[in-house]
Design a protein that fits this description.
With about 300 residues, this protein is mainly α. It folds into two domains: about 1-65, no CATH class; about 80-299, Rhomboid-like fold (Up-down Bundle). The protein is built from ten helices and four strands, in the order ββαααββααααααα. The chain has helices at about 50-60, 80-100, 100-110, 135-140, 145-170, 170-190, 200-220, 225-235, 245-265, 270-299, and strands at about 40-45, 50, 115, 125. The strands form two sheets. A two-stranded antiparallel sheet has the order 1-2. It has a two-stranded antiparallel ribbon with strand order 3-4. A hairpin with a 4-residue loop joins strand 1 and strand 2. Helix 6 runs parallel beside helix 10.
Amino acid sequence: MEHQQGGLGPGHTLPGCYRHPGRETGISCTRCDRPICPDCMIDAAVGYQCPECVRGASGAAGRAVRPRTLAGGTVVQDTRLVTKILLGLNVAVFVVGLALGRQFINDFQLIGLALSGQVETGGLEVVGVADGEWYRLLSSAFLHSEFWHIGVNMMALWFLGPPLEAALGRLRFVALYLLSALGGSVVSYVLVVQNQPSLGASGAIFGLFGATAVLMRRLNYDLRPIFVLLAINLVIGFIPGLRVAWQAHLGGLIIGAVFAFALIHAPRKGRALVQWGTCGVLLGALVLAAVIRTSALLG
């Protein structure tokens, strides 16, 4: 759709409201992309819609056409359900770890290749992703060994999750979370020394950070708050003594941002193909990177 330029002179670059061309605005309708001024903004589940789209949605309701989120997912009433389930899974696994002890953590945390067992009893065994334990790439993303660690990650999940769940839809949000978690683990597997363990949901959380930045940019929101928060968390990863896996942060951030861009900016025609095709490409790239790393460790 062609956007009208603002009517305040050549020095202004923001488009004019489609109903009031003389009013510049940086906000657009989340359904049709028309620029809309404050008088024409109507609150929606995500962002704002123009009066025409709201009327069209009301008319379509009579024809049993279900409204869609910004990314094409189904609009639901509870936009925190998946976030609550993911939070509950992380807390449940943490409680199990407290109950079963360190061995439970050792069995499921991320480790490339290492010896495990008791030297004095001769019970040493080779463990790690390179030894075929590929499940560690995902299971480690639900493990936490410290109260502060799970507390920080779950607060971030509760803060970032619901807006993304509302904008993307439940299925796409789950895919974003798991793909970001896997991205963080694979980058850690590739860059961290082979016998250094790591765990935590940080890769997934940084994927949500990246996705939030993409979503806010799409809705023309001020990005400075999310960039400041993201920068603080990235810097923390490089502070000596905290033992924070910055590699997982970086991997999750990149994968989350790329996948979110495909989810949010995919064209309406063939949208699902672009979105899930991108998911498949990213997953394939991560698998390939893990395979190459495994070959290097065993070679």
